[in-house]
Design a protein that fits this description.
single chain; alpha+beta; four-stranded mixed β-sheet
Length: about 220
């Protein structure tokens, strides 16, 4: 059975027997790898298999990073939410946006709270203003039944950045954002794991070490 041999730099070396191909690989101190076993004849390449595997794993990591699925996170609040709770939810929302996820902020109205829709709308606008440095408004506040929601998306230039150290919080008086340094104590939303598509890894048959494989092919 013959194989089609390719040099390390991709230069075709012609068709030859497996033993001759292996001898050429040994002479160069490299491995003989069957890169296309289903071809006729099978294609073998002279290469450094250790470097080949390293480059392959590196490409897999890059593909996983590129295939990160953007998730839609949601934060819920009531029209009567207190200032501290609002600021906590705001910081959580900033973390989601800084991680590259979209965010849905919802105000739930109950009973007589339906007569104060303007309060819920103001909460949503204040939330959007607090995230204005890292996000844009996809959809303005919209009432559906007893729920009023706003959608935010991270700005393209900030999708890969880490959450900012200085979190933005709303002050008690004017509703405008001010900068505060504090840690999350009661986060309400949980991060779900990103389900990245796992790339397929092509298999390759590798020759045995030169010292042990003289005169034989590796599969």
């Amino acid at each position: 059975k013959e194989v089609r041999l390719v040099a390390q730099d991709g230069t075709p070396l012609g068709i030859m027997g497996p033993k001759d191909a292996l001898k050429r690989a040994i002479a160069e101190g490299l491995d003989l790898v069957k890169v296309s076993p289903t071809a006729k004849p099978p294609v073998c390449k002279i290469m450094d298999y250790g470097k080949f595997k390293f480059d392959q794993q590196k490409r897999e990591k890059e593909q996983k990073k590129a295939s990160h699925a953007v998730e839609l996170k949601e934060i819920k609040m009531s029209p009567s939410i207190g200032q501290n709770d609002f600021n906590t939810k705001l910081r959580n929302g900033q973390k989601f946006l800084s991680a590259g996820d979209r965010l849905k902020v919802t105000v739930r109205f109950r009973g007589r709270e339906m007569t104060h829709l303007d309060i819920g709308r103001q909460h949503l606008m204040d939330f959007a203003e607090g995230c204005s440095d890292i996000a844009v408004v996809d959809k303005a506040p919209n009432l559906e039944g007893k729920l009023m929601s706003i959608f935010l998306s991270p700005k393209p230039a900030l999708k890969e950045q880490k959450p900012p150290k200085n979190q933005t919080a709303r002050d008690d008086k004017g509703g405008k954002p001010e900068v505060k340094n504090s840690e999350d104590k009661n986060p309400e939303s949980k991060k779900s794991e990103s389900k990245a598509a796992k790339p397929e890894v092509s298999t390759a048959e590798v020759s045995a070490p030169a010292a042990e494989a003289a005169g034989t092919t590796k599969e």
